[in-house]
Design a protein that fits this description.
The chain is of the alpha+beta class. The longest helix is centred in the middle third of the chain and has 21 residues. The protein is globular and about 65 Å long.
Length: about 700
């Protein structure tokens, strides 16, 4: 029998999403070696890095962190938190430290060693690298400019070594700035001697909490158990969720542009030989993943992210009579027509706009309830869900606009939309479940504010207008002109909200690799130590991260993410047997941002037979994918087969940089409709080959 050597709990997908305390309590019934959570991401847009503000409400972040600290007090295990305050810049990290001190004081934490690791980088250092031509692009854009970099807040994604150094020095609490989310989990495992390939892959599964489960959600816990035979098992402490080989494999593809190669500061996670297996009805596992130490420019590269302010923003949401919809110009965003994608709905395709609006006597109460409804609605997992990256698309970053209502109350509004037919079937149940979750976890939020959820479709269209400018006078004039353009064509209905002052607009200015090893090792990621007694933290010195090489030094396989597992252009052979809806063939059909400049689609099939039939139909060769998505062939990065989990992954250059001013789907979570609507020709020979497999 293999022996358990390490057990770790991932509290949730991001600190502030919320998770049932009962799940964490259940996880603590076994051995616990670490309690870890990612606290942020760049997914929500550049606003949070540029401003230093938190994406989630402070009360939600505090509650999630408090539960983690209580777990550490019971177990003595280290607590690791990265990308603090959402974006991981210095101001974001300071926010998290303030929350931590408050929680420590309330829980009586004493004589605790705390490590704080910064991730921000002086723009002038980056400008020098730009001048030297030493910044390596990660894809198509953003375009670099010296002026934009100088105006930017810039962070680097730390890998495992700063975190390992802090843990080796004895820190019980590690609070880090911008971090590679996988490194948060892999660091402690690797320092304890666990194979890097297994450690990185386990980290990738855990980084979004229970999103790797069925049904999945980042608002719940997930536990990983590592055994001395080189296997890892995953189990959800919540009995309503289960881990399956499919759900673990599906999450292994999540947010990555290649299905078998994932690139990190220290090297490359290779999953070409990974095995996914089922242990029992609620437990699944992995084995045989590898981690490769790559030659220059890796392993010592760090991904940099930069954000700067573009200008102030005004927003209007205008409900109109459906009879007026044909008069509205094609380039105007209208929920029910083209709110989720620039391509308008076609045939019997449906688009649903979902507008959350709250009101309260205080701005904080209105914003809190709108935020909770928003976060739960996008990520709520339900049986049969296929678009597991997110249920709805948000066009704004931040996605919420607060305002003063005519009746004197404070309001908050969040526009969003979806084209997902499976979500439509479950929409009523999802709404009811979301409200129940908030009643259970945040009852005061519902007591302090009221809400409406308005549906917009072709029979109840809603127009979203957005204007951005640094000059407030020009901004007001331009937005007024936009409103007038619409009102000359259609009469706004009473529920419309005109001329709202939205949060400022920010843009990504940098998403490149820093290759200067001296800057990485000598300047970035300083570690500061504190002795904490409640809110009183006394400095105990600083330290530089200690670096060492890890992984396989001589790897004979391919690390080419443009050619490995690429689907060949092969004309189908044999007699056409039938045509099947892709919706009936796949258990997962989702889209998601893979960074700020790529979009990836994951199709995970319900059997080897349906996978082989789809693969051999030639529908998914990259040139045919380009036609399906209405792209030029060079915009398709690749279309890949994944035999280990009966999956196809498609990656493309994002049509725009994520969270741009013209954005319709900040997370890229609702761009799969053209693929969802496919019917796949099934040939007799493909069925025969699948039977042989």
């Amino acid at each position: 029998m293999p022996n358990l050597i390490y057990r770790v709990v991932s509290a949730c997908g991001a600190l502030g999403y919320g998770y049932p305390k009962e799940s964490l309590d259940e996880a603590l019934k076994g051995r616990i070696d670490a309690v870890i959570s990612d606290a942020g991401s760049m997914d929500a847009g550049p606003y949070y890095l540029g401003t230093g503000l938190e994406y989630f409400e402070r009360s939600a972040v505090k509650q999630d962190f408090r539960h983690m600290v209580e777990a550490v007090q019971k177990t003595g295990a280290p607590l690791i938190l990265g990308s603090s305050g959402m974006a991981g810049g210095d101001r974001n990290l300071a926010f998290m430290l303030d929350v931590a001190k408050e929680v420590f004081a309330e829980l009586g934490v004493s004589d605790a060693k705390v490590a704080v690791i910064g991730a921000e980088l002086d723009p002038e250092i980056v400008i020098k690298e730009f001048r030297d031509g030493a910044l390596l692009a990660t894809g198509a854009g953003p375009d670099l400019s010296e002026d934009a970099l100088r105006e930017s807040v810039i962070v680097g994604q730390m890998g495992i070594h700063p975190l390992m150094t802090a843990l080796e020095t004895g820190a019980q609490y590690v609070l880090a700035g911008r971090s590679c989310d996988i490194a948060l989990f892999a660091s402690d495992m690797i320092r304890r001697g666990i194979d890097p390939g297994l450690a990185y892959h386990v980290g990738h599964v855990l980084e979004c909490g229970a999103l790797a489960c069925d049904p999945g959600s980042p608002s719940d816990c997930l536990v990983a158990e590592i055994y001395d035979d080189g296997t890892a098992l995953f189990v959800a402490p919540n009995p309503d969720r289960r881990c399956t080989a499919y759900s673990i494999a599906a999450h292994s593809l999540y947010e990555e542009s290649h299905p078998q190669l994932q690139f990190y500061p220290e090297g490359v996670l290779v999953m070409e030989k990974t095995e996914f297996f089922t242990r029992d009805s609620r437990t699944a596992g992995i084995r045989n993943s590898q981690f490769v130490r790559q030659q220059k420019p890796l392993p010592w590269t760090i991904k940099l992210e930069g954000s700067r302010r573009v200008g102030a923003r005004k927003v209007s949401l205008i409900y109109i009579d459906p009879a007026d919809l044909p008069k509205i110009p094609a380039n105007v965003l209208v929920y029910g027509r083209n709110g989720v994608q620039t391509r308008p709905v076609q045939g019997d395709e449906r688009e649903l706009g979902i507008v959350i609006e709250t009101s309260a006597t205080t701005e904080a109460a209105a914003v809190l309830l709108a935020s909770l409804l928003t976060h739960y609605l996008i990520h709520y997992g339900y049986p049969g869900r296929k678009a597991t990256a997110g249920n709805i698309a948000y066009p704004l970053s931040p996605n919420l606009v607060s305002f003063q209502r005519d009746d004197g109350l404070f309001g908050a509004i969040v526009p969003s939309g979806t084209r997902d037919p499976v979500f439509f079937e479950n929409y009523a149940k999802v709404k009811a479940a979301v409200i129940q979750l908030i009643e259970t976890e945040f009852p005061q939020a519902l007591a302090d504010a009221s809400y409406t959820i308005t549906d917009a479709d072709v029979d109840h269209p809603a127009i979203l207008l957005r204007t951005v400018d640094r000059d407030p006078i020009k901004l007001a004039a331009d937005h007024a002109a936009q409103i007038e353009r619409i009102t000359q064509l259609a009469t706004p209905l009473p529920a419309s909200r005109l001329n709202l002052d939205a949060p400022d607009a920010y843009e990504w200015t940098l998403y490149h690799l820093l290759q200067n090893e001296r800057v990485i090792k000598d300047t970035m990621f300083p570690i500061k130590y504190f002795r904490a007694n409640g809110a009183d933290w006394v400095g105990e010195g600083e330290e530089r991260p200690r670096y060492s090489e890890i992984g396989i030094p001589d790897y004979a396989g391919s690390l080419d993410d443009r050619t490995l597992s690429l689907i060949a252009d092969a004309t189908p052979r044999g007699v056409l047997h039938d045509r099947h809806r892709l919706l009936d063939m796949a258990v997962v059909i989702r889209s998601k941002d893979a960074g700020i400049n790529r979009l990836t689609f994951d199709l995970i099939f319900n059997s080897t037979e349906t996978y082989e039939a789809a693969l051999r139909s030639n529908v998914f060769h990259k040139d045919n994918v380009a036609k399906i998505l209405g792209l030029s062939p060079e915009k398709v990065v690749g279309s890949f087969f994944v035999d280990s989990c009966n999956a196809i992954k498609i990656s493309i250059d994002r049509p725009n940089i994520s969270a741009s001013i013209d954005e319709r789907d900040v997370f890229g979570a609702q761009q799969q409709s053209a693929i969802e609507r496919l019917t796949i020709p099934v040939y007799v020979e493909a069925l025969a080959m699948a039977s042989a497999v």
